[in-house]
Amino acid sequence: RACRAGLAMQHAMPGFNAERTIKLVMRIGINTGPIVRGDLGSKVVRRDYTVIGDTVNQANRYEAKCPHGAVLVSASTRDAVGPLGTFREAEGLQLKGVAAPVTGYVVETMASEEPE
Q1: Closest by alpha carbon to 29, among 84, 73, 80?
Q2: Does 116 map to a domain?
Q3: What is the rounded CA–CA span in Å between residue 67 and residue 26?
Q4: Contact 111, 11 (CB under 8 A)
Q5: For residue 54, what are the domain limits?
């Protein structure tokens, strides 16, 4: 669903920009793995529902390396999507905080619906 939503967001950008003087570009990074989610903070000062963890941080790093107008995913996301999507390999990505280069995958297409 996240990959499909990412592509839909990118496809909507030209229409969004047609109504504006200043044109915006968007990059989307998606990763799959364990996270911690919930209300963090204090009731007195500030409480936010959020997600944290290495999986979230890696998604942010994939977004930073993503070409404008694209959706870049990790190998774990590509593997989870399987045959529902087509991808173009992006080798040698140097992600912040990761010693060795990694391979990411630009989402090319997604099946319109998940199988039953």
Answers
A1: 73
A2: no
A3: 9
A4: no
A5: 2-110
Residue 51 belongs to a domain with what CATH number?
A: 3.30.70.1230
Look up residue 8 and give its two tokens. Answer: 């839909």
Q: Identify whether 115 is part of a domain.
A: no
How far apart (Å, rounded) are the C-alpha atoms in residues 48 and 41?
6
For the chain, the domain total comes to 1
d(CA 46, CA 5): 30
- 100: in domain: yes
Q: Residues 50, 78, 103, 55: what is their CA dihedral angle, to the nearest 10 degrees?
A: 20
Q: Are strands 36-42 and 46-52 parallel, antiparallel or unpaired?
A: antiparallel
Q: Which of 76, 82, 84 is nearest to 110 (CA)?
A: 84
E strand or H helix at 47, and its extent? strand 46-52
Q: What is the pTM of this model?
A: 0.83
Please give the chain's pLDDT, 116 residues, in tens. 899 999 999 999 999 999 999 999 999 999 998 888 788 777 777 778 878 788 889 999 999 999 999 999 999 999 999 999 999 999 888 889 888 999 999 999 998 766 55
